[in-house]
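Thread: quick sanity check before group meeting

JM: Hey all, I'm pulling together slides for Thursday and realized we never actually wrote out the predicted structure for the chain we discussed last week. Dropping the sequence here so it's in one place. If anyone has concerns about the input, flag it before I start.
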Amino acid sequence: MSGSPSFLSSVMEQFDRAAGYSDLPPGLINQVRSCNSVYHLRFPVEMEDGRIEVIEAYRAEHSHHRLPTKGGLRVSPDITEDEVTALAALMTFKCAVVEVPFGGAKGGICFDPNAPESVRRRVIRRYTAELIEKNFVGPGVDVPAPDYGTGEQEMGWIADTYRALRGADLDAWGAVTGKPVTLHGIPGRIEATGLGVYYGISEVVADPEEMARLGLTAGTADKRVIVQGLGNVGSHAARFLQDEGGAAIVGIAEIDGGIYNPDGLDVDEVLRHRAERGSIRDFPGATNMGTWQDTIEMDCDILVPAAVEGAITRENAARIQARIIAEAANGPVYSDAEPILADMGALLIPDVWLNAGGVTVSYFEWLKNLSHVSFDRMYKRYEEISTRQQLEATERLAGTPFPPEEMMRLTRGPSEIDFVRSALLETMSESYRQIYDTWRSRDLPDLRTAAFLIAIERVAANYLALGIFP
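JM (edit): ok, ran it. Output follows.
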């Protein structure tokens, strides 16, 4: 939007605001802030009609305080170096906040993600080969993952290309995450970011005192939610909020407009409607909204911007009616909008923590690939036997047996997705406690400042431990 800072400038303003509360020396702060390297590349690819098109692409590695670096790969005609650099910086701070041992990175390819599969495959494979040549990808170097315009299929192409060119690398499958489960991926990765958003929102709204300040009751039940963006993150966040949290999804915004129903919308039915009609508009029982901007300005308790950056700036912040803005996307609230929202008494749940579910589960996939064994294979049978022994002892003491169906249900060992979801919940819960305690104990202005400050101090501590600074 006109008059607002760029995405990169907005992230750096948020960083600088938090850094002002640190006692670290300016040189160290500047090292934490700076992007280590950006690889800007161009390569030729043959189109379906035989034309040769030169593709422009990027890979930014923001911080080498920990290796490998980690970050998604976006495919869009509008990708810029500034955008990739901003996203790489956010990845560094995000990983530090949830204590995932990666430096931040991000990739981008300026190309149509809806191009024919044969062309997309050539583009992704050539991009991967170029990164391999310059040592910008590898299980101990830099590990891509899905992002806007990419998914499991593209990650599979990256994995296969890496294996073809680096076949002697025993840990080759760990060069990329977000792969299909059949290619050594991990269950739960697809919905990980959206599920992490749900876990995060649930943690925040569970506090009755904080909710009372907003005029809300504790818990997700019956909260009125508007979701902007019904892609992978937004659709899963909306489903979990509705199905597990008991929230009412009253509005959904997409690029071509939005729909609103104060009595609630069934997310699965909306997705089915979009699949059949090509749009969420004209959904039965809902009111069509003119634009996505109109939709996010409607009355609700929680607004979940889950599309792209810059959804809320100083130009529309005063019209946002939500009491809680939960940043499921990267950078949806620009720095110039934050003071306006704060003056209105809204609570902002920052992206640098809230959407860390994707990289957290990617970390689990990476660990699985390096250990060459699934998590449940090591523990499932042991847990089943141990639990059965405890229940049988309980039966003997009580003199009453469990019904067979109940015994079978209780003794079922955890599957790999059970491990993944449990670990994700623990990660989101514990990291929020740390952010909240920092916010209150150090008298900081907001949760974002607290999260950034934690990240800055953790990254700086790692640099100091490495002996980079005297």
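AS: nice. The radius of gyration is 23 Å. The longest helix spans residues 416-441.
JM: adding both to the slides.
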